[in-house]
Amino acid sequence: MSLQALGAVLFLVLTVLVAVKLDSPDRMSWPIAFIPCWIFDGVACILCVRMRRRRRNHSIPAKQLALRAGFLALMIAFQVLLVLRLEGLLTVRWIAVLAPLLAFELLFAGTSVLYIHHNRPY
Fold first, then answer.
1. Per its UniProt entry, which superkingdom is the organism in (predicted)?
2. What is the pLDDT of residues 38-47, one digit of tens each?
3. Rounded to two decimals, what is the model's pTM?
4. Last residue of a domain, one of 60, 76, 92
């Protein structure tokens, strides 16, 4: 199974689980509904480690590895905060829950602009 197919299947399962949770709140908890997200995060972590091992002869810059780890950490932090807030275990404002996602988007946009700026064909 390709990574895209796995992502599509996990997204479909996530959608179904969230719909079931919203339809009957007592049936399951939010962490169970987010299991597809946790699986996808685990696969992404494994792929980052494997990519590093595969390219041992061609060293990946430390900045690039730190950036990938930062992206993953921000997404996982957002998912954990979201689940805790939805479960009622965390009583912070929604802006605090969405802060890691906003940081992820800003970091992604910033790195995309830098990539386009420095790797633009002349």
1. Eukaryota
2. 998 888 888 7
3. 0.78
4. 60
